[in-house]
Amino acid sequence: MRHKLSGRQFGRASGPRKAMYRIMVTDLLKHGQIKTTIAKAKEIRPLAEKMVTLGKNGTLHDRRQAAAFITDKAVVRTVFDDIAPRFKDRQGGYTRITRLGVRAGDAAEMAVIELLDD
């Protein structure tokens, strides 16, 4: 029974699923936007916003927490030095999900998740 269980499984065990989330968040923060399915975009949105919030706080502990999740050290620096100052006056909602339609191969609903331009 799935009573009160949250989150999507994507047909993966927990380890590969968490690795997928980490890679997708790293790519989103590195490139500013990524194209993925709507379900995956909805799953990584809170994780990406948490990384931006850690960057806004800017303490050593926050930097180490971000470095433990983000897979590229250069992206950690980018979050703390470039992305976080852009959102200093914003209290959340750093990303936008835009629907694109269906993918030709399997009719999965596609979306672009991107950082806002504040």
Please outline the helices and strands.
Elements: H1 14-31, E1 33-37, H2 38-57, H3 60-69, H4 73-86, E2 95-102, E3 109-115
Helix pairs in contact: 1-2, 2-3, 2-4
Biggest sheet features: 3 strands, antiparallel
CATH class value: Alpha Beta
Order of helices and strands: HEHHHEE
Q: Rough shape?
A: globular
What is the CATH topology descriptor? 50s Ribosomal Protein L17, Chain: A
Quaternary state, please? single chain
Q: In terms of per-residue confidence, which ranges show pLDDT below 50 for 5 or more consecutive residues?
A: none
Count of helical stretches? 4
* Mean pLDDT over all positions: 96
The count of DSSP E runs of length 2 or more, i.e. the number of strands, is 3
The largest beta-sheet arranges its strands as 1-3-2
Hey, roughly how much beta strand do the residues contain? 15-25%
CATH architecture: Alpha-Beta Complex
| Class computed from helices, strands and strand pairing | alpha+beta
Name of the CATH homologous superfamily? Ribosomal protein L17
Q: Measured on Cα atoms, how large is the radius of gyration?
A: 15 Å
Distance between the ends: 43 Å
Core attributes:
118 residues, globular, 4 helices, three-stranded antiparallel sheet
How would you describe what is shown here?
By secondary structure, the chain is of the alpha+beta class. The chain has a single domain (14-115), classed as Ribosomal protein L17 (50s Ribosomal Protein L17, Chain: A, Alpha-Beta Complex), CATH 3.90.1030.10. It has 4 helices and 3 strands, in the order H-E-H-H-H-E-E. It has a 3-stranded antiparallel sheet. Strand 2 and strand 3 (109-115) form a beta hairpin. Helix 2 packs across helix 4. The chain is globular, with a radius of gyration of 15 Å. 20% of the residues are buried. The model has no long low-confidence stretch (mean pLDDT 96).
